[in-house]
Amino acid sequence: MIRGDSVHARNRNKAEILKRELEARFIACGLEMHPTKTKIVYCKDKSRKGSAPNTQFDFLGYTFRARSNKCKRTGEIYERFLPAVSTTAQKAMRRKVKELKVRQKTQYSLEQLSKWLNPMLRGWINYYGKFRRSELDSVFRHFNKTLVRWARRKYKQLKRHKGKAVAFFDKLSVREPKMFAHWQFGSARGRFRLRAK
C-alpha cells in the first residue's frame, strides 16, 4: 500500500520484493532511489512487537518511531508508531535562534523582540506542534535562555544577576503569557516557565 512517500507491506519479505520492483521501475524512468534514504523500516507498535535493524525514520522534519501512548478512555499505556519533531529539526531551530543574534539586539524593546520573533515561533509551533508538542521544550528552553542573555546585556541591573533575569521573565510569562508565542503552552498551567538552571 502506498501512502505519500512511504510504501507499506505486511512483512519484510514482501517489503524487499516491493523495493526491488520500485528500483526497477525507477531505473526504467531514468531515476534512482537514494541509497541511504531508502530503507525498510519496521513500524513497531502495540501489535507488532518484533525487532529489526531499522525501527525509525525521519521525514519532513519529523522522526517516526515507536512511542509510549496513553489511552484517554482506559488510561492504558501502550506503544504506537508516531511522529514527533526530529533531533535534526530541533538542532536547526536552535541554530536559527543563534544565527539571529537575538542577545545582541539590545536596541530592541521587549515588544519589538516579540513582534520580530513571534512569526517564527508560531510557525514552529504550528508545524512541529501537531504531534508531541512537548518535544519542542528543548528548543524553547534554549530560546528562553537566549532571552535571559539578551536582558542581561540590555539592563545594567541584570548584568551580573542571572537569577534576577530568570525571575524577571518568569513573572513576565505569568503576567503577559501572549508576549512570546511559546509561553502559551508547555506547562500544566498553559505557559512555558523559565528555569534558573
Automatic annotation (TrEMBL):
It holds the Pfam family GIIM. InterPro entries: DNA/RNA_pol_sf, GrpII_Intron_Splice-Mob/Def, Mat_intron_G2. Residues 91-163 form the Group II intron maturase-specific domain. Signal peptide: none annotated. Belongs to the bacterial reverse transcriptase family. This is Group II intron maturase-specific domain-containing protein. It comes from Kluyvera genomosp. 2.
